[in-house]
Amino acid sequence: MLSTSSDQRLMRLLSCITLFLLFEITNAKGDLKGACNTCKQITDNFSKGFDRTVKQNFGGGNTAWEERTLSKYETSEIRLMEIIEGLCESSSFECNRMVEEHEEHFETWWFKRKTKHPDLHKWFCIETIKVCCPKGTFGPDCNACVGGSERPCHGNGMCDGDGTRGGDGKCSCNHGYKGEFCLDCTDGYFNEVRNDTLSLCTECHSSCKTCSGATNQDCDECKEGWEEDDQEACVDVNECSTDPSPCREDQYCLNTEGSYSCKACDKVCSGCTGAGADKCQACASGYHEVEGACTDVNECSQSESVCTKEHEECFNTKGSYVCICSSGYEEKDGECVLIPKSEKAEETETEETTASPHGEL
């Protein structure tokens, strides 16, 4: 039992160490990529500063005199310091740390290497402090990406760590491509051109799940919502033609390529075959058909009154009507009764005060 318990503790310890090392390796790769990005930002800003200071000490007056007396500014330490001061934002810790740590390299390049090595990024980031790699290569030794440094991932993807001392060189393929070398096509694409070093994946017809060509007759398998016809071509399935309809009674079915959608019927309809009052299967309550379309029934204009109580008036609404008491009457216990005179007078006085807020003083 003691031996088994010790073995289990040892296994747990080894697992923890393995996870820790994997975490550290992942972080290290991320740091290496970040260092290269920082270095590239620095050299890009150096180029901008170089351009900005080309004529900085020339006033535009006596040009001949300025060119004689100030020509040394072009290669001066003063100009170098002005450029270096603008390399980093004050808040960028990594950028400022890298500049401070390698400031002597900028001086070396400025005074001794600039003519022979005009590409600062290559000389500084790749060859001197070695935080970057040439394009198309990756890792500590700047190994070529899959597919070669000229066309990483055969031109169909991104090489992890490309141009940095980090990454693992694996390909992240572009949309439509897959595989270790990004030479294979995903479902919905086919190889229009393919050899050991080149692959061109072209999208299949919209009806194909997989295909060997660009038309709906080149499908190896139809997508859902499509079916093969007598000519072995994938054609749209009209779900709306099925019985019963896939939609509810208050909806109509709208067929689309490879699918369908259910749309609400017009409110004047009780069931419909399409949009609008002229596509009703039957008219909803309060509507009737007039010249092929469902329109509102004006219940208040019918010969037989729908508001049967005394002192009651009819008001038509869309699809219905309401009965309300006539002017001077109010509803009490389901009947329209005369408003008492005292209440009438108060109501009239209130109305007049509201209508004439600036009455007699």
UniProtKB/TrEMBL annotation:
Which GO molecular function entries does the Swiss-Prot or TrEMBL record give? Answer: calcium ion binding
Q: Identify the stretch(es) annotated as Disordered.
A: 341-361
Q: Where is the signal peptide?
A: 1-28
The main location is endoplasmic reticulum
Q: List the disulfide bonds.
A: C173-C182
Biological process (GO), any one: epithelial cell differentiation
Which segments constitute the EGF-like domain?
141-183, 296-335
Name of the molecule in the record: Cysteine-rich with EGF-like domain protein 2
